[in-house]
Known about the structure:
NAGPA, Phosphodiester glycosidase domain-containing protein
Amino acid sequence: MKKAFWVVVLIFHALLVCACYEYERKVDGRHTIHIVTIDPKNFDIDIVKAESSNDRETIDSIAKRINAEIAINGGFFEINQHASKPSGTLVIKGKSYKIINRPQPLIIIDSKGLSIKFANPINYVKESVISGMPILVQDSKIPENIAQRNTAFYTSAHARTSLGIRGDGKIIIVIAEHRYGRDLMSITMGEIQSLIQEKREVLSKQFGCKNPGSITLNELKNILKAEFQQEGTFVGLSILELDRFMQSLGCKDAINLDGGGSSTLWIKDKVVNQTFGDEDEAVGLKVLRPVHDAIVFKKPKP
């Protein structure tokens, strides 16, 4: 019960309210959590696949490309020998990218709106469907098979992306930040080169337009400390904490989506959460990870 107690003592940090949605950012010293409450009647909701040669694109790029008001990362995807392929089911407006023919946790978008179900996607091949795992809340209750799990997948804290539906029909998005640290002695030359290349403009301003090749070792040390050893530690949520949190927000149904370095929340014109690479890719770096797909909320055309 101690782990769940922090849910009710989060300190109010920021609140943005408009006619279509409400955004909150809450912190309590250890946790930084972003909450968006959306009235789905005011949005067109879609699943959007990345557009690039390797089927990966950052959330900010996707959001700008399709003019989204709100966007989050979607399903899990592969980054090994099957790189950039969806790990689970993905169907977009009747086009199947991958279907796993068995009952599973799904987000379904059809003419009736968005729903969260444990179902076989083969029954929804004409709609838009994306899988996550696990179902966090079902019929306002936490599934017993989650509450009894004690493996690392369920008990370890990570950055999280979750989507839920309240009893009144409003959609809840939760993004929990997690700061992945890094031992400076483990950083490779390839990672240093990638970092300098990616942050070329920032470094040029910081060091008076100095060529990256002329940065001194002392300056490089400060750069690496700033990127990999930030002050303070923001701890994400375990699945067992996330399900209770979604339930506390009034969700009757909720699902866990891809998390870790993928967890990204775009609102209106920017990414609002601090993103960090995790053990899978770019560990400890403050970067926007390109993902395979996104769930987006767009204002209807007049």
